[in-house]
């Protein structure tokens, strides 16, 4: 049943149970690591301003939705949320449609500079956005992409692309080429073989890397704050003001920012598990 | 099949162009680094700007994106921003991109601030919008620990140290809080409060013997200061959690404490030193960028913001005080009443010694602040020798003043050429 039983009794058992305690402890610690901040965020979101500032905290606060109501009535939150969803969705589509073919090429073909390319693709993450934002904004204003969903999505795609390429690369590499070859011998051309054999197999993984792109776009602030001014995304619209706001609004605003992303990840969690190789139930 | 594909292409391109087209509108985009906290932004939109005849889109932003965006529009030669609102220090670095506002009616606007708004040129680069300053705030629980004979409205730095010592020793934990966190405004304390109070100077006597005394006094105060202060940036938070009882901070950064629990907190003037009660006003200006899409509408909004009634609404929304002569109504929020009284006591005190914000430093303002912050970190946090640090930092300060060629400002006596560092 458990690992300890397999080792029988005696000193080995104590080593085994020590191992078990360590394992359980680590699991509990990791869970707390993630859950405690979210718990505190929620508790303080649903507390009155006085309760937020008071100490010690009650485990289950008297529910007070005052702080949350503030954001419900905050002019522009809805629009900003909608902008964020649009930008993140376009980013998702763009980064997969560009990243997956690149990942496939990396895994199936040998070409000159392949290794260099794999390193270079990461280089887009090497330049801090505040450095790039000025020339980028000037260019965007000149070509008319400024303050648009598509323009910002291009930037976010650049940020998400390395991950999309590398994740899909490892996905395609995990699928034996023999499967494709078998399809070719049975009369498929390259594209058909890909669509009929490979694509269904990697779909969950592709979905996972799409989610990754979504989250990257959702969390990005600086480019969004410079490149969109009238059509701002939620982080650009809210996050900057939150850092200077009273504590209870920080918590409520944090919840407003985190919950949509959490909800989204929760909905698509089975794809994430498949990316990490955990069996899909 | 081909029809299907064609319709797909059409759908995609229309989708893309729909996404790409921004909202074209005639509203004035008000791009500000002030009133950034969500509650303030909300109040500015709903209370302050609601009375304007035209349409306004108020967008507050962090300094970094704010500046980058304005610079990008200036470089591109076209832009969407109609009105800029920011601190004196930020507007200085944009001087070349700002339109001349000499033709705007500025009757009743504070003339010292108007002069600051020329940024050393012949043009009116910005017009003061609102002002604030730094004060002290305390939890009423701290009052019993006041040193004997001390008048809370006329404290000296020695009394503040004694007070903090009493609280630390009798309650068992330090109760004085100082905004030395990453976003805290500590440099303004050294520039506008400590130096003028001890040396009657901000720049010239940077490394004087008096300055050495001042830093040693501050080290003494620091020993009774809550060590968490290096994380504090908005002292209203620590006042409300009662982590500390007595604080120094910007009026807008303690306002929430007064407004949420008016009966628990008091405001009072900054302490005085041997050369008077140093204090520093903060000026926020409004300016029109050269790339404004509608110059007339921008100026119209600017004039609207200067009207006395708008200024009062601005005060209620942001806790920044008017820059025009206005009669304040009685029904103001607690923070306004309390800080207002403390500011009046501070500026009206017999030993008042106001210092101006740095003038004429251009984009060296950040380096200028760094001189004071570095001195603080080396002397107080790292415990380095005061004399050595002041000598080092004085060299940096001298270089900055010479590079900028900025003449002295109050409380330093006016100079010909760059302000000297003795």
Structural features, described:
The complex is a heterodimer of chains A (281) and B (422). Chain A is built from 14 helices and no strands. Chain A is mainly α and 281 residues long. Chain A folds into two domains: 66 residues, no CATH class; 206 residues, MetI-like (MetI-like fold), CATH 1.10.3720. In chain A, helix 2 packs across helix 13 and helix 5 runs antiparallel to helix 10. Chain A is globular, with a radius of gyration of 24 Å. The N terminus of chain A is likely disordered. With 422 residues, chain B is α/β, with parallel strands linked by helices. Chain B folds into two domains: 161 residues, Periplasmic binding protein-like II (D-Maltodextrin-Binding Protein, domain 2, 3-Layer(aba) Sandwich), CATH 3.40.190.10; 202 residues, Periplasmic binding protein-like II (D-Maltodextrin-Binding Protein, domain 2), CATH 3.40.190. In chain B, the strands form two sheets. In chain B, strands 1, 2, 3, 4, 5, 6, 7 and 9 form an eight-stranded mixed sheet that branches. Chain B has a two-stranded parallel sheet with strand order 8-10. In chain B, helix 2 runs antiparallel to helix 12 and helix 14 packs antiparallel against helix 15. Chains A and B meet through helix 3, helix 7, helix 8, helix 11 and helix 12 of A and helix 1, helix 2, strand 2, helix 3 and helix 9 of B.
Question: What name does the CATH topology of the largest domain in chain B carry?
Answer: D-Maltodextrin-Binding Protein, domain 2
Structural class of chain A: mainly alpha
**End-to-end gap of chain B:** 84 Å
Q: Strand-residue fraction of chain B? A: 5-15%
Q: Tell me the helix content of chain A.
A: over 70%
Task: Give the end-to-end Cα distance of chain A, rounded to a whole number of Å.
Answer: 21 Å
Q: Give the helix proportion of chain B (percent range).
A: 40-55%
- The radius of gyration computed from the alpha-carbon positions of chain B, rounded to a whole number of angstroms, is 24 Å
Q: In this structure, how is the largest beta sheet of chain B organized?
A: 8 strands, mixed
Low-confidence stretches of chain A: 1-9
């Amino acid at each position: 049943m458990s690992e300890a039983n397999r080792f029988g009794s005696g000193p080995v058992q104590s080593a085994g149970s020590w191992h078990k305690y360590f394992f359980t402890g680590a699991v509990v610690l990791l869970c707390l690591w993630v859950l405690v901040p979210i718990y505190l965020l929620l508790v303080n979101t649903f507390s009155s301003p006085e309760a937020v500032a008071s100490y010690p905290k009650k485990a289950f606060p008297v529910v007070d939705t005052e702080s949350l109501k503030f954001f419900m009535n905050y002019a522009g939150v809805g629009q900003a949320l909608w902008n964020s969803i649009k930008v993140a969705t376009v980013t998702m589509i763009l980064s997969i449609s560009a990243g997956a073919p690149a990942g496939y090429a990396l895994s199936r073909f040998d070409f000159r500079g392949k290794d260099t390319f794999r390193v270079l693709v990461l280089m887009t993450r090497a330049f801090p956005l505040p450095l790039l934002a000025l020339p980028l904004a000037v260019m965007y204003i000149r070509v008319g992409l400024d303050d648009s969903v598509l323009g910002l999505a291009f930037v976010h795609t650049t940020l998400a692309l390395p991950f999309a390429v590398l994740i899909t690369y490892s996905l395609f590499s995990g699928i034996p080429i023999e499967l494709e070859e078998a399809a070719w011998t049975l009369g498929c051309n390259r594209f058909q073989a890909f669509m009929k054999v490979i694509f269904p197999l990697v779909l969950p993984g592709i979905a996972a890397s799409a989610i990754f792109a979504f989250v990257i776009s959702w969390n990005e602030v600086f480019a969004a704050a410079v490149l969109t001014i009238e059509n701002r995304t939620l982080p650009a619209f809210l996050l900057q003001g939150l850092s200077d706001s009273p504590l209870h609004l920080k918590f409520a605003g944090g919840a407003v920012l985190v919950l949509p992303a959490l909800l989204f990840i929760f909905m698509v969690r089975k794809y994430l598990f498949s990316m990490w190789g955990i069996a899909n139930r | 099949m081909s029809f299907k594909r064609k319709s797909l292409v059409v759908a995609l391109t229309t989708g893309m162009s729909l996404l790409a087209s921004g909202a074209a509108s005639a509203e004035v985009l008000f791009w500000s680094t002030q009133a950034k906290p969500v509650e303030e932004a909300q109040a500015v939109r709903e209370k302050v700007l609601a009375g304007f005849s035209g349409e306004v889109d108020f967008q507050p932003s962090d300094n970094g994106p704010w500046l980058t965006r304005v610079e990008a529009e200036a470089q591109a030669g076209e832009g969407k921003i109609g009105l800029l609102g920011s601190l004196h220090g930020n507007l200085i670095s944009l001087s070349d991109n700002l339109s001349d506002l000499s033709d705007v009616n500025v009757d009743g606007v504070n003339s010292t601030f108007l002069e600051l708004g020329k940024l050393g040129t012949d043009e009116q680069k910005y017009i003061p919008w609102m002002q604030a300053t730094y004060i002290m705030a305390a939890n009423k629980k701290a009052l019993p620990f006041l040193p004997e004979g001390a008048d809370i409205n006329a404290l000296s730095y020695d009394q503040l140290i004694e007070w903090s010592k009493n609280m630390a020793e009798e309650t068992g934990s330090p109760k004085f809080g100082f905004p030395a966190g990453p976003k805290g405004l500590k440099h303004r304390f050294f520039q506008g409060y400590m130096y003028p109070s001890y040396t009657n100077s901000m720049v010239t006597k940077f490394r004087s013997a008096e300055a050495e005394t001042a830093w040693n006094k501050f080290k003494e105060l620091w020993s009774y200061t809550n060590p968490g202060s290096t994380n504090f940036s908005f002292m209203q938070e620590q006042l409300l959690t009662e982590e500390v009882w007595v604080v120094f901070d910007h009026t807008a950064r303690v306002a929430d404490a007064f407004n949420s629990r008016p009966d628990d907190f008091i405001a009072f003037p900054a302490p005085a030193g041997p050369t008077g009660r140093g204090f520093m006003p903060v000026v926020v200006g409004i300016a029109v960028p050269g790339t404004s899409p509608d110059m007339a509408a921008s100026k119209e909004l600017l004039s609207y913001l200067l009207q006395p009634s708008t200024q009062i609404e601005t005060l209620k929304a942001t806790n920044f005080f008017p820059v025009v002569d206005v009669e304040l109504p009685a029904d103001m929020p607690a923070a306004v009443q309390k800080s207002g009284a403390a500011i009046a006591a501070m500026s009206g005190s017999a030993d008042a010694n106001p210092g101006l914000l740095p003038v004429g430093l251009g984009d060296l303002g950040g380096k200028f602040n760094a001189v004071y912050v570095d001195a603080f970190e080396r002397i107080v946090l790292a415990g380095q020798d005061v004399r050595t640090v002041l000598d080092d930092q004085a060299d940096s300060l001298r270089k900055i003043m010479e590079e900028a060629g900025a003449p002295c400002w109050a409380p330093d006596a006016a100079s010909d050429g760059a302000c000297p560092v003795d």
